Request: fold
Amino acid sequence: MKQTNDKKQDLLLDALSCIDEDILERGLALRDGTAAPAPKAAESAPKTTRPATVIPPLYDLTRQPDKPPKKSPWRMLAVVAAACLLLCVVPMSMWMVGSMTKNEAGDDPTLDGIQNGILDGNPNPGNRPGELPDDAPGDAPGDAPGDPLDSIPEAEAPEIGESNPLPEETALSTEPPMEEPNEGPIEGVTEPETVFEPEELIWNTVSKTDGTAEYTATGHNMAAITLLGTRDAALGTPFPAEDEMALRMVGQWLASLYTLDYGYHFPLFYESFVQEVFIEEAVRYGSGYRDAIQRMEEAAANLLLIDEVYLTLHLDENTLLSGEELESYRDTRPAIQTSRGFDPAAITAVRRVRVSGSIETDGFHHNTTDIWPEPFYLYEYEGKWYLDETLMDDDLSIDLLGTGKADTGFYKLQTTAGIVVAVDDIYLYLDTGDAYCIDGATVQNQTDGGEWQETVIRVGDIVSVSHYSFELEGLTRSVDGTENEEWTLSTATEINYYGRAVIRT
Reply:
């Protein structure tokens, strides 16, 4: 039976056997106390004398030759596992490189291009705009198997709150979105025509004396227009044609603005200026001139429909310019007009016109003291008279062109509550100073059962009025015995009755 020391030596020798057979034989010889056998040499190799082994001292730190790795089964398993993993990784990486470099005929993707492609919704930002990769699936992006977007757990998406607020530029807004115009023609869609189709307002002469002339006309929204023109004239002096022309042109300009009738507004100006100011904007909205005018007329009929317009105009000045005044007017024209086919030198005559008077729409009087503080200028060009283009509206008309009916812009609804102080078939007046056109509005009250039913509104009723945000301010009208009380006018869509007001004496 072996002693304990012999067992330890056997275990040690078994471990050393994994390194070299010579070491094993020497170890056995040391254990048995016999001389170690000479190392075996190959039969064909010449015999050589083995040099004596030199054991370096402990303090010698010089690097010794590396020993061969141990022949351990665990190490072999690790090597095999690493080889298998490498065989899996290499084809995967080659597939990824191949996918990224596909379609080499196109432009090489850049970081900016890839980012822009993602923001623009392009599923293949590396390709040319509008092209999909050759191996793109037929389904929508994100539905294909293996889509990296599908592998992101929903729980990883950060929650928006006080600890993680939205960036300032992406903060949510409660304001309704503005309707944006088209930036250009859409492929496959015929571009709107830019032809200017002016329509002349026809004035009918009711009467004409030495210093007074009365005319009537009808607007596109069927508004009845009356123009009463006066002038300082001696008895028996006929009403001159140049004064008639001046009053009619200024009257048409005022009526077109106060009834939102732009179909009779733009024909007062030379075509090239209408093209620059209005028609180019209409094309951006996808409309030609006639379609744009019709769209604005429909908006005006919904927002503020005017039935009657009464103009009282006194002609304070109608001077034909000559000499230096005429040349000064020609010289002050913008240079860009020449590039649009308008030649200021071809202006044959210019008139400076001043008027005073009043404007009344459906019984409401407009404050006209600051409407035209400067004179009107009329000029003759190619045998026809035009208003100076500085008088052309380029603000409200464009807003009307871009407005919609989805509770945005001028169609945005507001609610005002108050006590009714006067009411008729067309207008309702509240103690808040607000007046509403109620022709076509829904008028209702709530029953005890909670249902809404049609009703009639009377003076003293407490109501709430839903109305469009388009308003006219500073209007005066005598209502219920008051003298020229000031009102803000808009159009109501719905009126709700909530009871009777308590009148304290």
